């Protein structure tokens, strides 16, 4: 297989999207609900993360935290944090730390998306104290209490974890033991009033080598997001995405099938080839790559096979070959972060004689002997390969819920909500 892949024409250099996602404003504002009450922090943590000088923080309370979308620019993070501090043994102050941060997303040299700060403005206001005073602190007073200069540096450090999660978007995911899928962003996301749109290109590796995918006959662009969508996220997959998936699995040999079949007695012209009663076996290979066709409300999987009919094990001897063209309904659903794909019942099937060592065989006899087995076993064996599902583009800390799959002409839409995974360890 490695030798075969090395002989293939190098992958086409045209970079065009075949899938992507639109994160809506409601998805942007989603966060795991939980208590935001005052809580104590360690002395080390106080000094490191809040840059407090000569003071002791008794409690921290997040009064407000919001993330808003700025069209054509990026994101704005607004946070108000109340700090209860004790500068002296006799005085306790409550300080309101307000931080306004502008963020945007870039593509780094490694091809990963990266969240960076473009502006940061922290302010501090004294809310109350045990001395009964309530006033706006002067800049010198503020500097005595909290090191403003270091606040933005600490904010930038808070982006380390989100950026690690963004890197997980481009991880390789297994489809089969020898075939992996990877989703690569083509450019930085587009920020619009309706949401954040990211376009992705799917790549596949077989036996550790990238394979050239067929060129899409129709350039794919992300559908316009619905302004009233209640979903957190809408994923979109082009018709070409599914054709590329089946092409990769075919290159990996995942769909090569051996099908035992019971035909007793064999027709005389076939049985005369064998001196003993050997079981008949079908070996199916693709003579042309599978193709997926998406229409409004339904999908179809087109298969083009050559089925070799013979006997003998382990030395298989073919005495008859049949070309089989079939079409099966395509079923799609989502489980957690995987797309489940399966071939439904065969809707259309044609058999024609390709080669014969036993002379002419009437089409009616071919259908009588082999069509029922092929109709049943081909989709069944393909579904075994597909049964684990295909990983969707995602970042490691989220899973998908409330999912709906809608098939349109040339593409599939998957509106869904986000759910934060419980962190372990």
From TrEMBL:
Stored InterPro entries: Bactericidal_perm-incr_a/b_dom, BPI_fold-BPI/LBP, Lipid-bd_serum_glycop_C
SMART domains cross-referenced by the UniProt entry: BPI2
SUPFAM superfamilies associated with the record: Bactericidal permeability-increasing protein, BPI
Domain Lipid-binding serum glycoprotein C-terminal: 227-416
Database matches in Pfam families: LBP_BPI_CETP_C (PF02886)
Region (Disordered): 24-47
Molecular functions per Gene Ontology: lipid binding
Protein name: Protein TENP
Species in which this protein is naturally found: Eudyptes sclateri (Erect-crested penguin)
């Amino acid at each position: 297989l490695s030798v075969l892949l090395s002989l293939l024409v190098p992958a086409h250099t045209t970079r065009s999207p075949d899938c992507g996602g639109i994160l809506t404003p409601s998805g942007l504002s989603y966060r795991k609900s939980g208590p935001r009450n005052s809580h104590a922090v360690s002395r080390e943590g106080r000094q490191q993360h809040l840059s407090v000088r000569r003071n002791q923080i008794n409690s921290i309370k997040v009064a407000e935290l919001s993330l808003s979308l700025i069209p054509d620019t990026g994101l704005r993070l607004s946070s108000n944090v109340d700090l209860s501090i004790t500068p002296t043994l006799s005085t306790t102050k409550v300080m309101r730390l307000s931080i306004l941060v502008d963020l945007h997303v870039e593509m780094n040299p490694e091809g990963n998306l990266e969240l960076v700060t473009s502006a940061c403005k922290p302010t501090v206001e004294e809310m109350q104290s045990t001395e009964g005073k309530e006033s706006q602190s002067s800049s010198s007073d503020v500097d005595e209490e909290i090191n403003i200069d270091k606040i933005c540096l600490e904010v930038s450090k808070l982006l380390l974890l989100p950026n690690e999660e963004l890197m997980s978007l481009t991880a390789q995911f297994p489809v089969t033991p020898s075939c992996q899928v990877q989703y690569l962003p083509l450019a930085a996301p587009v920020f619009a009033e309706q949401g954040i749109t990211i376009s992705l290109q799917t790549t596949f590796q077989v036996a550790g080598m990238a394979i050239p995918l067929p060129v899409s006959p129709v350039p794919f662009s992300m559908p316009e997001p619905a302004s009233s969508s209640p979903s957190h996220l809408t994923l979109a997959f082009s018709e070409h995405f599914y054709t590329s998936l089946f092409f990769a699995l075919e290159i990996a040999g995942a769909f090569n099938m051996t099908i035992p079949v019971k035909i007793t007695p064999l027709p005389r012209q076939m049985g005369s080839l064998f001196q003993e009663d050997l079981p008949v076996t079908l070996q199916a290979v693709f003579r042309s790559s599978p193709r997926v066709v998406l229409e409004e409300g339904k999908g179809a999987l087109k298969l083009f096979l050559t089925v070799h009919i013979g006997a003998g094990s382990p030395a298989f001897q073919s005495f008859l070959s049949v070309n089989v063209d079939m079409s099966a309904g395509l079923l799609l659903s989502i489980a957690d972060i995987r797309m489940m794909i399966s071939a439904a019942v065969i809707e259309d099937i044609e058999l024609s004689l390709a080669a014969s060592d036993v002379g002419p065989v009437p089409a009616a006899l071919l259908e009588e002997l082999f069509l029922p087995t092929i109709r049943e076993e081909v989709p069944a064996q393909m579904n075994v390969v597909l049964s684990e599902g295909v990983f969707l583009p995602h970042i490691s800390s989220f899973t998908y819920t409330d999912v709906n799959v809608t098939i349109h002409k040339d593409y599939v839409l998957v509106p869904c909500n986000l759910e934060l995974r419980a962190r372990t360890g």
